[in-house]
């Protein structure tokens, strides 16, 4: 089944996802790219090494799925079409394992061991194994046979790929290994040939296992939501599989159980531990009307909730899907490693040939010099394997993204993570970022002959159409005072200023003093009243007449000042506060949290401008906002970070980074986490290269050993992977 790419302007292009069995290393990505990307009619190739998938966009006039599968086969791999159901995520699929290769590995190891024992017994000690290059070891036909069996068991997985690489005229590591093994056999070094085959296969298997481990950690996130839930039916309470539960069903959750689906509490109160999604350490009190999310843990109260959506559409599900997409966006450091491997492998092959030919030419060709330097060339081939380099970076990034998600920070790809690590300036929005974003009305003043009741009815009526925090504040206030919102029509939001609408044929507006001024009203008195306070004034008016003023105040988050201090401590040069709110309010907040600069009364377009200016002065800029009237500015920053994204679908989908909770202190944590990831990647690359350099030097001076070389290569591969997987265990605070 292929689906037409809908967002593509020309409808001719189709796309298909192929599961490629052999695709587990950047090496295969290269093979597929080289073999396919340039073909006419292939529009776009995307790779997901973690899942072994390739996404192909192709011209339906030239290609079809069958031809694509054949093309993949001609490159020495086997593929299968993936049919995605809407809610299927990678996390739900079993992680692939190449069990055949693992079994072959075990057998090859067993034959190797027996051969070694026999050879040692026959020649009176292990020392005989390590002499090389003379081709006349005391070795019996039996142990040669056992070595050869061991070699062929392993080589069966390497040689076919090597052959393809020869046919493509592009050296890959399978070719390096195959040549080294055959070379060692030619020299009569059966033990070493078998050792190289075995250890190379072992490292490939272990690499694949570690990638699987990093991926599984995201599966564990999915498994947070229980598979069955207790549903209220007419007959009583029934246990039902969560995929069969429908929108609107009522579910019961006992104390200590996990919430099975998303919904709204209808009965009972309880504190719910939302850490699995938000990373918040403190449980959140929930009462009827409050939202609950699949995967979170019910505290000590029993609750009933009404299901909203299905098991495929939960917040948890969406998070997992987004992380999954994040895995596929390649980070700059991954691209760098790819580029590196592209010239590194052929260069090492040339170097190996040079080592085989040049020294004997200088010192004079003889059987001895030829075999010695041929052997040294083989050692070079073995250490040339770029696998440690190639695999460690994606494992680091996947682990880092997973760890962040577990701490309630959704990072949409390696690029965002690397950028945030290098950020030089941070722009903070005020409402909802530094403050709680839940202002409350503290007083109402009416002018002229309008009653307070009528003013509140009008204000609430027009705000019924808005999602701005001020609207919520006014609606709450009116509800508390038993007011009834008027019916409004033709409501129009005026971004960064306010809102207007009609009721009973009359037009009213509500908003900032700027809006009031623009309507021709005189706001001098209102301005004076709030001049040196942290209070916001919102004006209700008709034409150029002011009818009432509402005073609102928002609470500073307790952790805001500490978070800003942490940013400074991390070396962020400039932390700026940019807000649409009034000067007096913004100034007070700015002084309390200790930002380097602040700007008030900024319209959405001014906010973009401010971000652009900072990008010019400081290169990499992160902007944190709540998504209300600052969406475009978030998009203009190098990294846009949405706060409190749990309640806002658009924020989760569009921001580069979504902080699921309202905790601003997650921002410095994320910067530190990003830096740690980059540091680890660099450490890994350095370690892998250092080992190689050491062995290259040892070999050049004629002081090296085949099986030591492969042991070092395998060791360093495993060490860098283990190092990368450490990121999985990262916790906040
Ligand atoms: N729906 C609305 N109802 C009433 N006033 C509004 C509304 N929308 C905007 N305003 C007015 O416009 C001003 C600016 O709004 P904007 O959303 O840009 O910033 P803010 O939420 O006050 O602060 P920040 O930019 O820090 O989030 C508000 O302070 C308020 O006076
Ligand atoms: Zn390798």
From TrEMBL:
Q: Name one GO molecular function term.
A: ATP binding
Q: Name one GO cellular component term.
A: plasma membrane
InterPro entries to which the protein is assigned, alphabetical? ATPase_P-typ_cyto_dom_N, ATPase_P-typ_P_site, ATPase_P-typ_TM_dom_sf, ATPase_P-typ_transduc_dom_A_sf, ATPase_P-type_domA, Cation_Transport_ATPase_IB, HAD-like_sf, HAD_sf
Give the EC class as a word. translocase
Ranges for domain HMA come to 14-80
| SUPFAM superfamilies xrefs | Calcium ATPase, transduction domain A, Calcium ATPase, transmembrane domain M, HAD-like, HMA, heavy metal-associated domain
CDD domains registered for this protein in UniProt: HMA
- Residue ranges spanning the membrane: these are 104-121, 141-159, 348-367, 373-391, 685-703, 709-728
Catalyzed chemical reaction(s): Zn(2+)(in) + ATP + H2O = Zn(2+)(out) + ADP + phosphate + H(+)
**Which EC number(s) are documented for this chain?**
7.2.2.12
Q: What keywords were assigned to this record? A: ATP-binding, Cell membrane, Membrane, Metal-binding, Nucleotide-binding, Translocase, Transmembrane, Transmembrane helix
The entry's localization annotation reads: Cell membrane; Membrane
User: Looking at the record's lineage, which domain of life comes first?
Assistant: Bacteria
Matching NCBIfam families: ATPase-IB2_Cd (TIGR01512), ATPase-IB_hvy (TIGR01525), ATPase_P-type (TIGR01494)
Family stated for the protein in its record: Belongs to the cation transport ATPase (P-type) (TC 3.A.3) family. Type IB subfamily.
Q: Which PANTHER family match?
A: CADMIUM/ZINC-TRANSPORTING ATPASE HMA2-RELATED, CADMIUM_ZINC-TRANSPORTING ATPASE HMA4-RELATED
Protein's name in the database = P-type Zn(2+) transporter
Organism of this sequence: Blastopirellula marina
Print the organism lineage: Bacteria, Pseudomonadati, Planctomycetota, Planctomycetia, Pirellulales
